[in-house]
Task: inverse folding
């Protein structure tokens, strides 16, 4: 699902004007977003032909926060370029099980004491910044 230059010309008014030194055009970013929408892949899974995934993700995130994506998808539907149905549904945390690593929990590490208890005490190197001169 990619849009052509002619289709892009019909909806480009709903996208912000590009300023400065940008590496990707709005058309390239929009096609990458449509690819992720259609394929359901991760951002890192974008093919190299779309450009750097992080650049695309950051611009998509900015567009989503500013309401640009809503306008674009509405315009795509009005012009009958792409037919997209957006559905939102609530998720209850009691029905979605997340691995502890996914919640940002600290990993458990076993404390293994050394054979010599004195070596297990204070660290051998402590960085203490000191002021050499007073003004």
Result:
């Amino acid at each position: 699902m990619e849009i052509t230059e002619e289709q892009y010309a019909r909806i480009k008014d709903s996208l912000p004007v590009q300023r400065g030194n940008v590496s990707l055009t709005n058309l390239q970013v929009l096609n990458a977003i449509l690819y992720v929408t259609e394929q359901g892949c991760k951002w890192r899974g974008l093919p190299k032909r779309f450009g750097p995934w992080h650049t695309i993700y950051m611009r998509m995130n900015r567009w989503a926060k500013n309401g640009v994506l809503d306008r674009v998808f509405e315009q795509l539907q009005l012009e009958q370029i792409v037919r997209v149905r957006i559905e939102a549904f609530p998720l209850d945390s009691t029905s979605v099980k997340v691995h502890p690593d996914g919640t940002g929990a600290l990993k458990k590490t076993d404390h293994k004491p050394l054979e010599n208890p004195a070596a297990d005490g204070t660290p051998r190197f402590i960085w203490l910044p000191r002021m050499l001169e007073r003004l």
Remarks:
- The CA atoms of residues 100 and 106 lie 8 Å apart.
- DSSP finds four helices and no strands in the chain.
- The chain has a mean pLDDT of 77.
